[in-house]
Amino acid sequence: MSHTKDRSLIAVVGDEDTVTGLLLAGVGHIDSKQKSNFLVVDSKTTLSTLEDAFLEFTKRKDIAIILINQHVADDIRAMLDDYHQAFPTVLEIPSKDHPYDPAKDSVLKRVQKLFGDDSK
Hints:
4 strands
């Protein structure tokens, strides 16, 4: 259980407004190797950059939670659906321009499946 004590950071993958807001709230961190715990995704961000960032964040031992805008998560939906680790936990969040759709949320789908709600 001691390995979870090292997980003290929240990673953020999202649009500029979301990432900026969370950085202003104190979430941002850059380690000694110049690795940050955030990625701003815009129209110029490649799919491979997004996938690489997600993989990096899921492998880091200092990250407890990954917050990702749902519209960004849609771009890597297959990766999210295949991710089953408890830590870091991946949570999909809305953005200013894209409302939250519970039908797309991979965590909510797993919970519904766990409780036998296959109606969605």
